[in-house]
Amino acid sequence: MKRALVSVSDKTGLVEFVKGLVDCGYEIISTGGTKKALEEAGLKPIGISDVTGFPEIMDGRVKTLHPKVHGALLCVRDNPEHVKQLQELGIEYIDLVCVNLYPFKETVQKKGVTHEEIIENIDIGGPSMLRSASKNYKSITVVCDPKDYDKVLKEIQENGDTCPVTREFLAAKVFRHTARYDAMIADYLTKKTGEEFPESLTITFDKVQDLRYGENPHQKAAFYKGMNPQYSLANATQLHGKELSYNNIQDGNAAIEILKDFEGQCAAVGLKHMNPCGVGIGENIEAAWDKAYEADPVSIFGGIVALNDTVEKGLAEKLSKIFLEIIIAPDFTPEALEILTRKKNIRLMKLDTTLSVNTSLKYTNVNDGLLVQEMDMHQIKGEDLRCVTNRKPTPEEIKQLLFGWKVVKHVKSNAIVLVKDDMTIGVGAGQMNRVGSAKIAIEEAGEKAKGSVMASDAFFPMPDTVEEAIKAGVTAIIQPGGSIRDQDSIDVCNEHGIAMVYTGIRHFKH
Q1: Is 285:328 a contact under the CB 8 Å cutoff?
Q2: b/e string for 65-97 if b means 16 or more Cβ within 10 A?
Q3: Contact at 8 Å (CB) between 269 and 245?
Q4: What is the C-alpha to C-alpha distance for residues 292 and 308, in angstroms, rounded to an integer?
Q5: At how many degrees (to 10) do helices 164-192 and 125-135 cross?
Q6: 3-class SS at 507?
Q7: Nearest Cα to Cα of residue 307 among 330, 283, 339
Q8: Cα–Cα separations (whole angstroms), residue 480 to 5, 357, 384, 458, 473
Q9: Secondary structure of residue 132 in the 3-state scheme
């Protein structure tokens, strides 16, 4: 008779699976709560203590860590010496292991959880059994995911056992499962000890979905989420529209990142190709959208819109008149949904974009490597600014300069943003020289540039950017400062009565 060892925290589909194994002639060994659940279902599993001849001890901390378990799992069955030792010690084979682990992730995320409770949810025996059985997958079937129950049972029913390819597939899944589990524990303890950049880094993500393709149709792609995807499209509810694409997710993420800097204000972001094409703030979300749209009504075509307040009927009517890929908002009224869902393909994503979040680290892939840095969460207030020109900015200019500073840090470097009346009017992004970005922003702004303010993500290496700003009618400038030629730019500002303030902080975005 074949034997299966079953010990699970997630009991989804358990009883049906085990009943199927029993019908196929398997004897069932079980532990603790799993054994109780099977008995309540009318099954008669053998207790682990009856196999080991040793009681469960230390509140169940030690129950399966025994030679009669791991000897049965690790025996190489075509090795005569291994088989002889097993027979001499009275150890019987175990042919199938069905184990999933203590809910460590769920425990960590519980409100009010104590450190002691978290530590108790570090599974030791489960990973040990999974690893032992998976090492010996040529002889043993190992199941760690309830989604695989039907496949495993079907093969056993049809062939008397699982096929070698299936066992290898399941073993690989087990080692991913245990690696993920260990990564979560390491992450928790590393953060608790305050180690920000440890000597080795293991991070884990769970698949959300396969994507139709990547940046281009010839590239395969998938979307994964991290451990705490609160402020993430991975945690959004899609209310309508086509499946998100790779580029949609990239753009959507960039849009909601901008909204994080406008906590407490009604803000609207229009975005294309990872750069904002229009950002506006207003007394309500519809007014904010009006400004974001007016900022660049051409570029928003086919773009992404992110909002930090509920979409109501009036705003929905305006949004429905434009071709948009995605609208992201905390909620949509029934009237707004009725209007927007008339468009077949537009994606409507419900996500709480008002959350106060502080994602601590940013990960960027490079060839055979990973760059890790703190997120750029730096913000400034009016009192943090240092005026370096003879003319000081007016209170209204300071308000607009701070608005521009919030936006420019989300624009690809070299970045220049022109702002007026609580909205962007020109965005210059990603040029190889700063004056090139300034010219793009000024051209986009056109006549609106007169009376606007300019934000620059880094210092001016020479006064040419300031000169372009003056010609366009810019009245005040915000920049980090720090160039060996700062005085040249200051002199030009003083000559033309322009106010310029320094932040002392650079906001490169590569």
Answers
A1: no
A2: ebebbbbbbbbeeeeeeeeeebeeeebebbbbb
A3: no
A4: 13
A5: 150
A6: coil
A7: 330
A8: 64, 25, 12, 6, 21
A9: helix
Contact between residue 211 and residue 246 where contact means Cβ atoms under 8 Å apart: yes
- Amino acid letter, residue 192: K
How far is it, in rounded angstroms, from Cα 76 to Cα 53? 23
How far apart CA 176 and CA 210 sit, in angstroms, is 18
Query: What is residue 359's predicted lDDT score, i.e. its pLDDT?
Result: 64
Residues 6+ apart with CB under 8 A from 376: 362, 409, 507, 509
Q: Binning pLDDT at 50, 70 and 90, where does residue 375 land?
A: confident
| Torsion sign, CA atoms 420, 422, 425, 431 | positive
pLDDT of residue 23: 95
What residue ranges in 53-109 does DSSP mark as E strands?
A: 96-99
| pLDDT range class, residue 358, cuts 50, 70, 90 | low
For the stretch 426-435, contacts whose Cβ atoms lie closer than 8 Å and that sit 24 or more positions apart, written own/partner, are: 426/452, 427/275, 427/276, 427/277, 427/296, 429/275, 430/275, 434/458, 434/460, 434/461, 434/465, 435/464, 435/465, 435/468
Give me the amino acid identity at 361: L
Q: Helix, strand, coil proportions of the chain in percent (round to 5)?
A: 40, 20, 40
Tokens of 61: 């901390």
Q: Rounded CA gap, 47 and 55, in Å? A: 10
CA distances in angstroms from 275 to 28, 247, 480, 509, listed in the order given: 58, 12, 21, 10
Question: Which pTM was predicted?
Answer: 0.86
**Among 60, 206, 187, residue whose Cα is nearest residue 123:** 60
For the chain, the average pLDDT equals 93
What are the beta bridge partners of residue 492? none
Dihedral sign of CA atoms 411, 417, 419, 424 in order: negative
Taking CA atoms, 472 is separated from 114, 396, 426, 469, 497, in Å, by 59, 19, 12, 5, 14
465 and 456 in contact (C-beta within 8 Å)? yes
Residues 6+ away with beta carbon under 8 Å from 334: none
| Exposure letters 345-358 (e unless 16+ CB within 10 A, then b) | ebbbbbbebeeeee
> Half-sphere exposure of residue 260, counting CA atoms within 13 Å on the CB side?
20
Hey, which residues are catalytic here? Answer: 135, 273
